Amino acid sequence: MGGAGGLLAHPHQHGIRSLIRVDNLLAAFAWVVVAFLIIYPLSFLVIDSFRVAGSDRFGLQNYRAFFSDAYYIGAFVKTFVLSGLVLLTTTVLGLPLAYILARYRLRGQTVFTALTILPIVLPAYAGAFAWVVFFGRFGTLNLLLMQWGIISRPINFISGLHGVVFMQAIHLLPFMVLSLLAAFTSIDPDLEEAAEVEGASGIRRFFTVTLPLCTPSYLAGAILVFLWPFTDWLTPMIFGVIDLLPSIAYINIAYHFTDVGRKYMGIVSVVLSSGVCVAAFLLLKAWVERKRYTGLSKGTTLGGRTIRPNPLVRVVSYLYMLFISALVLLIPIVLGLSGFSRRWVLTPFPQHWTLDNFRTIFTGATRLISNSFLFSGVALGIGVFFGLLMAYLIARTKALGRGGLEFVSTLMLVFPGVAVGVAYLTAFWHGIPLATHWMIMPLALFVRRMPYFQRMAHAAYQQLDPCLEEAAEVSGASKLRTFLTISLPLLLKGIFVGVIMFFIMAFQEISTAIFLYRGGWETLPVGLYLNWHRGMEFGFAAALSFMMVVIVFVMLMIAAKIGGGVLNVAWGSSGRGK
Amino acid sequence: MKSGKMLAVTCLFLLTLLGVAGAAQQKLGWVGPIYVELSESLKKGFQDYYLRTYGEPIEITFVRPGGWPVCVDRVRIWDGKPDADVFLGAGAPAHSVLASLGLTVPYVHAHWDMIPAEWHGMKAKDPEGYWSAFAPWLVSNMYNELVLRMYNVPPPRTWDDLLNPIYRGHIAMCLTYASGTMYEVVQIQLQTRGWRDGWAYLRYLAAQVGRWTTGSTDTTHNVTRGEYPIGIAQPQMNAMVARRDGYPVGNLVPDVTVLVPEAAALLAGAPNERNAKIFLDWLYSMEGQKYVLQGGYFVARTDISLRQWQAEGVTMASHAIAALGGADNFWAVDLDLLDYDLELATAQWDEVNNTFDREIYRKWEELKSTLSQIEAVELQIADAKAKGADVAAAEAKAAEARTLFEEGELATARTAVTEARALLRR
Fold first, then answer.
1. Domain that holds residue B387
2. ipTM of the complex
3. B64 at the A interface (CB within 8 A)?
4. Domain count, chain B
């Protein structure tokens, strides 16, 4: 903060005035980009939701039709129920895990932490494919249980809503664990010790002191978990669940054919999902900020309080961490085995090994890989430039409208990908025909993933002492030169981590790309989806998934090496106790 | 100064990026619902042919957004400025819609006469030259023989067999608007049984379903993996390809079915029209048809002898012969097809899909519970009857409940069940 404020107090008033002008110009530029790539297309979507089917008139008919149809209301409610169940499951699974990782001194904690975070870089749909193979009616687990005589008929572990809850909970577990970790490690140990001195038992202390102090951080993770089911259309479809808002939106829009009414119900679903996401996000933001004023997170100690557990607790902790790690590791292992085999069905383990799936990828589907790298790379280039600009404007200036810029950009974190895809296709087909050029793909990726980078760049900026930049500017260096020679080198580490995370998140994006891709623009996730949906051999889709997992995992490891640990990479320093 | 240089470098970088897609080369674009195996086979075959014949390579792009309704919709969005040259795949309903909207244009390819005009009363090519079949197949069902054996039930042979309670919960079926093949299944029922009985049949069938899928391949995956051992609305060649790959699945051509003349057509305003025509000529040539077969589809020319191809070493020929029950050519298969009213089926698209959506799919749980209540009371009546009780009134009420169920009056049907139970207690 104090950057611009400090400068305003400086005697060189002329320089300051020009600086403010430049900042305002930069903010104006940022607003133009935001208006063109976010507000303009998304407003198309909202306006379209009011269009009367088969005419040029507008009205509330679509919303009226939506809310007078028990089916759509049911889907709306069911999505809320799913969100609640996923949140409950991640909380139940994540709370003990975060507590173990934060409080107990145990060997191998780093490895377990890394494994816990792995799902953040694994696309949820890739996990879903793997779980069908392992937990399916005639998947590995059921077949083994039948072979051992434990069951005579297969158990339905995953087909249905419970499977979606299970899968999404594992995928979102890192958000919960990282939030709680940040909370546990930022609680002032004196508060817990005081409770201990007053005679509170371990469990009582946990529920009356520790847990209430965690609430703001917990909610920050909880909101991301809660909103996910409003954005994920593919995982439910893989498990045979269709009647959820995002899946209905995707199916109604993609499959409406001659039935325009169906298309508008899809658009209304998208707009409502987005509305729920944005409203919940804003409510929570306001609540957490209000709580912070009360000083709950004040007086943090790096690392928090650690406890040496007794042998029983130690064994139980290890067993629990192993259980979670096994669930997470199952995904890459099953995908790998499927990718290196053919027709792995109705046997607990693969019988026919082959390199054909990977050979097909490297001979016939290299375009998927090169497109993914190209689009993510271009998006990254734009994202770094714009993200740095936004971070600078928000952290270092008092430029006009910077609060609004931060607000719009943060909203994109929770905006469903399907909404962006449909909005772009609607806004950029006729009139401004951007969707006919391949640049639409990286631009859409940029818009969706930029907030991840911006968060990290912002955090890096906050840790950088503004005096260094001020000193350079006072010595006569231009704004650009100060940035290139002083700020950028000092920001590099934080930025690099942001770069990798941006790339990983862009690389696995499917919800927007599936609407925007044209012949020859298919990315790895699009190819994966099409091969699952329009191909016969699962091994090829598994090989594509496995390759994607390997690529993003390698990138994560590189980022961890540079960024000082997996936790910092996955969550960014801004997420921990700030 | 430095800022100016940076700006210039940035502009150069952006221009380079924008130019990546613009390199001059021979191009061809396809859009359509055909499977990956076929598109890959055709791509390889045609690229070899093009290089051999014209001495230069050709780049092929393929837009495959989903089943045929989705593909047709994509072409409509293009609005006469298509992003492809050939509509590759889909049966007569899709092609008649495309032609009627002026989105395809007639092109009589070099081997037009080798494709039959019709088969058992169903069109295999358009008389005005808009489209012709290159990979015909029959609407079928599929089953996993290993899993059915484990459940100790025989494979169903007819549409009526599927209503046997032994298959309850074992069937995977697709949403009609997500699959053209599923739409054909619905039309088969409506056109053979009539509107009222057709919907009644579909209500019974829905009560048997264990899972709804979002595409015919989604169904195939569920059957091959054994998740649900019976799949409704399957292209006939899916089982052939799955068997070739070693999956324990069988194909069920039901007692009444229709032909899907998987066809190709030239798109109006095709940006690479010359190459599109060269491709269409090649697709229907003997060489092109071999690539169709190797891509896992049946072939359309009347002069093809699969046995001869088998002798020549075309690996898929033997699988095709087995899948066609020993026939030497697709058109030589001996069966009775439904006298299918294509125009009616096309005209009813929205009405039938919406009815299916509202009356069948959305009421799925209600259909299942209502039917099980009816069956339960019928069992009670049968028991009482066996014990010599007078059950005539209860029987009549239960029959009324069935009629109501068949007509979709589910709440009233359940009331009738309650009344039948009360009559039985008296």
1. 363-425
2. 0.82
3. yes
4. 3
